[in-house]
Amino acid sequence: MMEALSLLRGELGKAIVGQEEVIEGVITCLLCGGHALLEGVPGLGKTLLVKSLSKVLNLKFSRVQFTPDLMPADLTGTNIVMQDEEKGKYFQFQKGPIFASIVLADEINRATPKTQSALLEAMQEQTVTVAGIEYPLGDPFMVIATQNPIEMEGTYPLPEAQMDRFFFKLQVLYPSKEELLEIAERTTSPHLAELSTVLDADSIYPLKELVREVPVSSGVKDYALRLVIATHPQNEGAPDDVRRFVKYGSSPRGLQSVIMASKARALMEGRYNASLEDVRRMTPPSLCHRIILNFEGEAEGIEPARIIDEVLKKVPES
């Protein structure tokens, strides 16, 4: 497994300069059967990362550009009227772009809540229901959504229920000077990098099963549990910033995400049990998007990342 994952990271590194944490986060989501939300300004390679991932995994890829006039049927598919000599007129379901292994929901916050909600069933149940008929999606199935944190005019922020469906929220940061120069050299030279397939759908499933088998000690689970509980302002042991600025803390999915991601990180590093350090590293991307600030927190411009940092500082490991 280590060799396969190393090859996977190496191939993605041919297309993406830097962004190691984002690449690791997306691979972790894949191994855990989760979905990822990428947040960053345009031009940082979010779309390129997703397309490259589908290529090196030889998985079916589809991209949906979310716009205010996008309808749910444009995403899930719809029944259309067909006609032939034997059957006459009949309805036939035409699958939408969501019927792919890796779905890129580009600028998801530009679509209306009605269209955003079309993803909810697919992300949670891995099925699509149209006209009362349920259609299963394939395995693996992964939604990678992007959103622009700057241009907020004319956008529709994701509701809390949908944010909670994302396994990780990953910040795509601006590259350093050296990385920016490397990007320019790669993209303006006559020879572009060619990506090779290193895994496929049949080899991903055993890896996902292996992640679930990684043992987690009771002490590590207890630490993850205490971190999640500490995000709730009504908890007696919650840090001062949580009590002051947080309205609602993480849902149970946050705890599931921390533990599963810790298992995946341990396995990716060649270890066969999750550690306290794994929990600490996996807590920010697992919980930041699950923190709902109160009025004072929003008025003060408090970032959820600050809340999670405070929780990690205040909650003892044992």
Structural features, described:
By secondary structure, the chain is an alpha/beta fold. The chain folds into 2 domains: 2-70 and 101-188, Rossmann fold, CATH 3.40.50.300; 214-314, Helicase, Ruva Protein, domain 3 (Orthogonal Bundle). The protein has helices at 2-15, 20-32, 46-56, 72-76, 113-116, 118-125, 160-163, 177-188, 201-213, 218-229, 240-245, 252-268, 276-287, 295-299, 304-314; strands at 36-39, 61-65, 77-84, 88-95, 102-106, 127-130, 133-136, 142-147, 168-171, 246-248, 292-293. It has a 5-stranded parallel beta sheet with strand order 2-5-8-1-9. A two-stranded antiparallel ribbon has the order 3-4. The two termini are 32 Å apart.
Helix and strand composition category? alpha/beta
Question: Which sheet architecture does the biggest sheet show?
Answer: 5 strands, parallel
Sheet with the most strands: spatial strand order? 2-5-8-1-9
CATH topology of the largest domain: Rossmann fold
Beta content comes to 15-25%
For the CA atoms, what is the radius of gyration? Answer: 21 Å
